[in-house]
Amino acid sequence: MASEASAPRHIRLTSHHGGFGALPIVWGAATPAERGPIVGTTTRRSHRNVIGTHSGSYSVYRALAVAAGALKREHKADLTNTAPTDIIGPYPQWTDAAKIVSLDPWGAQVAEVFATELQAGYDIRPTIAITKAHVILPEVIEALQKGRLTPDRKILMDGGAACVTKAAIEPVWWLPGVARRFGCSESDLRRVLFEETGGMYPELVTRSDLEVFLPPIGGQTVYIFGDPRDLANPEVELTARVHDECNGSDVFGSDICTCRPYLTHAIEECIQGAQRGGVGLVSYSRKEGRALGEVTKFLVYNARKRQVGGDTADQYFARTECVAGVQDMRFQELMPDVLHWLGVRKIHRLVSMSNMKYDAITQSGIEVGERVDIPAGLIPADAQVEMQAKKAAGYFTPGGAPDQEELKQTKGRSL
Ligand SMILES: [Zn+2]
């Protein structure tokens, strides 16, 4: 069997019809039976009803494991005891094709809602997994020691561990809906996705009958403080942050931006909110460096620090644009989907200053009450460049935005 991966085999292109036995997908249908399961298996190709495969960017590692002979390509997941610890939904947003276009709302419950299809031999994988955890952060322990947080042994334990429900979500794109969000035609979207990935998925342009794409990108994780069912109740106070990945700050504590301090501040706010009888939510998206990637991000850091006059706030966006061609590639248009999956209709306290996130959330029909900015004492000195530039560009700031002269004066460290 070791020769399985290396034995010469015909390559079966799936760029033509012939999906005998493939189940139809009717996005936004009223019931999971009518919607149909997402089948991205690579073992029974005739069953596939999507473009791409499961696990987002990790599908490439799966291919490596098969190539190396470490994984049998026909391996079928044994899902015993993997069911969600908490049931999310179904909510009315799940059956509104315009509300959710970038994840499968039924993705956590496939074993239950597609039991018949699984029995019939379809390899249907969960695209969402829900579990429970204790999270221990030094900033939360410090808040306990300084008396800003108090343990209640339900949400927050004596030693500083916070009890959470967390969900990991893989991207599942319904292409007609994604195109509508970005204001382009579906055929243009398909063509550009095909071309800009170096021709990675020919079905994007040859199989217009396949409307669902499992893109090779990072997904997202949500952390819930309190009862997940309360997220859908607009009467229960919801404290929420939607955070985009920044490995340099989030994990390694780099002081050029406010990402980790803002994230840990949001967690503190979420814990306090949950202890007041509310619920807290942090949604974390894998969109490293404004979705430009870390290589581009570090190139921009150098360009900022080496420019004539040094790293000043008035040149902050210009330097990113010089290297990347755009200021930001995160495009928050798809971000609210996860909130609609959780049934959110109102965020009482949004722990974010981003106007782009605020606009995307409110334009998707979710009401936002108070906006919570980062406390001044948590902004590292070198991160003032970014903070002032963003405030001038439209970020929420109760203190007013800086003028051009102030931006010139706000200067970061040299290399
Ligand atoms: Zn950052």
From TrEMBL:
GO molecular function terms listed in the Swiss-Prot or TrEMBL record: GTP cyclohydrolase II activity
Domain of life per record: Bacteria
Keyword Metal-binding: no
Class of enzymatic activity (EC top level): hydrolase
Region of interest (Disordered), ranges: 394-415
EC number: 3.5.4.25
Record domain GTP cyclohydrolase II: where: 225-372
Keyword field: GTP-binding, Hydrolase, Nucleotide-binding
Domain (GTP cyclohydrolase N-terminal): residue spans on this chain: 10-196
CDD domains the record matches: GTP_cyclohydro2
Pfam family, one: GTP_cyclohydro2
NCBIfam families linked to this entry: PRK07198.1
Name assigned to this protein: GTP cyclohydrolase II
Organism: Ramlibacter alkalitolerans
